[in-house]
Write a structure and sequence with these properties.
By secondary structure, the chain is of the alpha+beta class. It is built from four helices and five strands, in the order βαααββββα. A hairpin with a 4-residue loop joins β3 and β4.
Length: about 110
């Protein structure tokens, strides 16, 4: 019988490093707080499909390859995660400002 736990989130160290490197920057405290709320929601989720993600986060963008883009702090920051629905794993692939996001390919990061 498959494990029936909640979503496992990996890659949080990169986000924590991002916040640590920008401590004191305008808006970073609010971004950290909203990221923590996102993390709490995802850690309890049982997403089996992109539709489940959209039900929980209507403004999330579903991309190819299991990638999902989440808006953090009113779209000031973007978080890209690769969701493995069957395994219930969300791997954070990118976290940064909207401007930083514009410089990456969210489908391959």
């Amino acid at each position: 019988m498959p494990y029936e736990g909640a979503m496992i989130v990996i890659g949080t160290e990169a986000v924590e490093r991002y916040f640590a490197d920008r401590a004191g920057h305008r808006g970073i405290t609010a971004a950290r707080s909203q990221y923590a709320a996102w993390l709490q929601i995802v850690s309890r989720a049982h997403w089996r499909s992109p539709q489940d993600v959209k039900a929980a986060h209507p403004k999330a963008s579903i991309l190819k390859g299991g990638r999902v883009v989440f808006n953090i702090k009113g779209n000031d920051y973007r978080l890209v995660a690769r969701i493995q629905y069957q395994a219930e794993v969300a791997a954070i692939r990118f976290f940064g400002t909207h401007t930083e996001y514009d410089r990456i390919d969210a489908e391959t990061v």
